[in-house]
Structures are given as structure tokens and as C-alpha cells.
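Record filed here:
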Amino acid sequence: MGLVAMKILLFQLPLQGHDFFFSHENIPLASAGLCLMARESGFDAEVMAEPYMSYGNDRSLLRYIIEFNPDVVGMSCYLWNIERSLFIAQEIKRVLPSCTVVLGGPEITPDNRFLLRQRDFDLGVAGEGEGTWRSLLRSNFQPEVVRKIPGVLSYHNGSGWDYSGDSPSLPNLAELPSPFLKGALQTHLKGVLWLESVRGCAHRCAYCYYHKRFSGVRTFPLTRVLEEIHEARERGLQEVVFLDPCWNRHPRRGEFLSSLLEINRNRELRLYAECEAEPIDLETARRMFEAGFVEVEVGLQTIQEETHRLIHRRFDPKRFLKGVRALQSSGIEVMIDLIAGLPGEGLKEIFDSLHWVIEQEAYDSLMLYPLSLIPSTELYQHSVPLGLKAMPHPPYLITRTPHLEAGEIHQVFIEYERCMGEDIAPLEMPISFDPQVKDDSFLKGLHPFVRWASLEEVKAFLSIEDRLPYSLTIQLSPEVLLRPEAWVPILKNYLKRNPFSLLSIEVPPETTPDQLIPLWEIVREHTHPLERDYTVPHSPYRSILVLTRFQGMVWKWPDPREWDPLLLFDGQKISLPPTLVLRTSTRKIPKEFLKWVADRYPDPPAIRLWEVPED
């Protein structure tokens, strides 16, 4: 038992989106496991409840934390949530200065230059965290003790961050408690179980950090994994997503697959995994389908032999296509991943990979990503001799290589759209505008829609700010819109106190661009990590949307910044067309709407039909 009855709160913030799609997938697997370990050691530990962890705005999160009044807060940090996690940490230290803030997850590495510039947390846990966490619990988080625990980043006044060195041993996976079987994930699953059956990866890809976190391939006890899958079926869950970096490299794959066939013979559970295509034959694919697999993700990345050599991968086109065909013919969909910006590749090489996959029809869905120069990866550590330059902050997108500039990388994504005939970066539809969203009960009392029909409602807004989700629609009446002196200070203050909010501001159809100037000034002053993706073919400014609905249509007004080039941190400029995004039931642009646009814009924006992202 701990020497002091300490309270511990653990959580994982979601990848944000206006439609909450990724929030639904925010399963705090690590937080729940660490919570069980803390309870076993006698601490009063909890995982932050929903809806606050996955859906709450910054103030609702902080209200929950302050009311819990923890001695220790632990957050799992990824490139999509690290900056928000640091802001929450800063606010915790401001309000609860004696609280110890501990960060873990892939972003916590001793050579992450972005992280080491921060001072908003107390301790960082690098690498595989359970062993270090157990030692922290035993230390009762005493500062003079924790600094000597392997795997810990701690701050020393005068000398900065100090790393105690890697842990000499890794936790025994057989000894780790199952958060699912122990009930620690009961209220967070949302119909989907995320599951580890192994840790580690047989590959050593130069762009990936996973294999550095987990040395070698180690397995969780197969009996435990099968019990988790059986329990998922019994509890009525719909999906199991394997988090293994390469499911069909499991050391006991044959036995695993046979057991899945027994447990899930009726395919009640839909199974998803990442796989290699090359080892899969027709018999394996058939058995995978019968066991419940519906989709596998295959990381092709490129077809270039020299690039594969540089990033420590292999590629056999014939075996690859044979494996993909086997999966497809057995009824399993194949998602293929490609990366733009890998070392040694110019536009031609990237286009060749994209066109080859399309011409071979070797995909059911095709994903294209810009390279992220993730801290502690081989490419990150060798970026100077390789001539790679990337954003110095998350998501660390590559912006220049010896063969590519940012504008050319941007062209790759335009070429994808030309070839595929689809929006590679569709704009999310806020749930208040989406006719397909009939139920927002998952928000459990957080209010996704606020109406400002009068100045009194504007004044009352800040009194409810800690009962709002991070994605919020505010509807302005014509009268309120014309009184910016009343609502501009309120909105500015809200964004200052909730900087990681995503807003959709609804304005009346009779609005003119001049009437939106005060709103656009607020938008211009606000920054959000969501707006760093320069590869999107349209509408790079996505954290605050100005929307209108009228006669069955919904449209996003073009941001005035879209008429100017997008300026990157290194001075490069990306030109994107100013774009109005329109949703109609007929998927046609009415002539009356074209006139509406022409009446308001002497230099009209492009009009793009709104393709709502699919699941």
C-alpha cells in the first residue's frame, strides 16, 4: 500500500474533429491498465469519466480535474494530443500547484526537441511504461527518488530536463492486468474493443518509432487474448481492432487463427488488423474471413526498391499482389497506405507508386499520408545528413527533402484526387448540421449547440462554458450578428480559455461578407494544430467554420485567408484556391446559389460539393 493515501487521475485526450468521429474511438487502454496497477498498490485511482475525457472542452476537463482534486495526473500523449495535454498540464499546475503531472506515451522521448522546450509537466515516462509506473508508485512520487528511476524525464532547475536512462528490463506481459477483463474500460468502449496481442515488431522501419519502444516481439498470453475476444462477443461488442503492428507475424498465428474460428464462427464480431500482404495465401485469407476479419490495413508506403532499402523494408510486387488478391477474393477488404516524402523520392517516384496501386486495383481503400518526421525515429535522428526538414512541432510534417519542396508534396495530394475522383481530406460535418445524426446522447449533457438569438443569451454564454463539448455550434441571429461589440469580446474570451475548441458559427443566409469581418478577425487571431496540414487540396483553415443552412443546403463560407498563399514555418508558400464547400441533397449546385455567390464575391471562390467523411 502507498505510504500516503494519494489520488491518481489518468486519461487520454482524443484526436479532435468537428463530427467527434475519432472521439468515439478514444479508448484509454494504457490509462486503464495503469489505473489497475495503481489500485493494486493501494492508491485511489480513476480513469477520467466520459463524456469529459473524449468530448469535453478544455474548461469542462479542468472542472472535472479540479473537483476530483488529484495528487497525481497521468496523461497518455500522442502527436495528435500532446499540445492540448501540455495546455491542460499548465492549467493544472496553475490551479493545483502541488499536483504531480506525469506524461507518457510515444511523444515522451529524451530527444524530442519540441517536448524538451516545455515546462508544463513534472515527469515524463519514456518507452514501455508499466515497469517505470510501478516504480513510481513504489516511490510515492517523491522527487528525490523518482529522478533515479530508469525511464524517467525530470526537470532540474538550472540544468533543464534530465533523463535517467532506459530501463534495463521490460515488464512481463503475462503479469499485466487486462483492463477489459477487469472492467476498467466498461464505460469507454463504445462497441469496439482495441486489443494488443503482441508488443514489438519484426520490422525496423526508419520512419516508425514503435519498434524502438518495444524491443523484439513479445506476446501476451494467448489464453488471455482469446478470453478477451470471447468476452467481447458475450458483451455484445461489434468490433475488435488489433493494435499489433503486423498481425500475421504473431509467433502462434496458426493456433491464434484456429481459436478465432471457434470463438467467432458466426462472425458476430468484425475483426480489423494491420497485416503484411506477401505471406498471405488463399487458404489463410479464407480462414481469416471465416474467423471474422472484414478489413486489413497494409502499409505498402512505396513501390521503389531503393526507398525500401533506405527505410529498411522489402517489397516483392508479385507476392504482394498475390496476397492482396487472396484477401479480396475471400471477402476481406484491403486498405493500402502510401507515404509521400520518403527519402530518395521525387514527384515521379511518388506518382509511380500511386498510379501502380490504382492500375493494379490492389486496394479497396487507398490512404495517402505525408511523411511525419517523428521524434526518436531513425529518419528524425539522421534528418540532417538525409536533407530532411519538417515542422518543429506536431504533427512534424515533412516540408522539404533534397528532391521535393512543400508545394510539390502538396501536388501529390491533388494528383490523388484527380486519380481517385474523391476528396482526400473531406471537411467534417458538425453534428448540429448533419441530418444523419439523430442521437447526441453520447455527450451525456454537454451541449453541442448554442443559440445566440438575443444579447441576453450572449451574456449568459460564459456561465455554461464548462458544460460544453470541444466541438460547438453557435447560431447567431441577424440582430446579434450586427452587434459585434456585444459578442466579439465573449467569443474571444471563450477561445482564450478554451484554445483547443473547434467552433462552427452559423450565420443567416442573408449575411454579406462585410458583416463577417469582425468574426474573421477573431478567426485570424486564433491558432489550432488542426490547421497545420498544408497537404489538403482545399480549406486548410478548419478549426473555426462559418456555416449557413438554407432550403436543405449547408455551406461553409470561404475563409478570407484562402485568397492568400498559406505560409509555412520555413517561409515556403502553398497556394490553394479559395473554396466554398456546399452540401445539397441533390448533389447539384442550384443556379440560384451561383447567383447568391456572385452577388457577394467579385472574385468568386471555387465551389466544391461537400463529401462528408465516411467511417
